[in-house]
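Worked example

This section walks through a single chain of length 215. The input is the sequence exactly as stored; nothing has been trimmed or padded.
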Amino acid sequence: MGLDKRIGLSFLNAGIGYGDSCFPKDVKALTAYSKSLGYNLELLEAVENVNENQPYKAIQLCKKFLANLKGKNITILGLAFKPNTDDMREARSIPIINQLLKEGAKITAYDPAATQKAKSIFKNKIRYASSTIQCLKESDCCILVTEWNEFKKTQTRRLHPKHETTHPDRWKKNIQPRRVQQKTQVRCHRTWKVAPTYSEFYPSHFCGCVASQNA
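Given that input, the structure is written out below as tokens.
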């Protein structure tokens, strides 16, 4: 599909949902307007429902890895609704973090640009890291929410120099399209399991993946 010039590759990467103010607002407005005319836009209603439920798939995967999330240290990488911005309007990190807090998880988050905006939303309910590595240390599970290039370039050997190095680029090879690959193992200072939260059309895209580590 991406080879079709009328479509292209730019927006076919599946992830954890869309945010910002424009697209969510436009979808709701079109749906409401169609209803005022006596017609239900079922396709847009389905799009909205999927987008609302998509963030919780990451939490479901955390539960598959860790069972009970209470007291677990959960890392959130990426807070903005997309990379290269500090905009958190309708960001998918918000429902994820709110639900994790309800589950009793301890959350540490990092975003290269949106941390200050996040502090105005979550206050002191979560911890804020100053780097990817700091955010990952002592983590039981990591949810990659926003596909910042910084996360792709992270050298995970810095977590523990005595153990095998695994670059996040290898995560992309281990995430298989259209299924959860729970048996895939990636080594950091402990063993990590990696799984996507949604079907992925391109292996180079790994936004929305979940990684948990076994003690």
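What to look for: Confidence is low (pLDDT under 50) at residues 161-193, 195-207.
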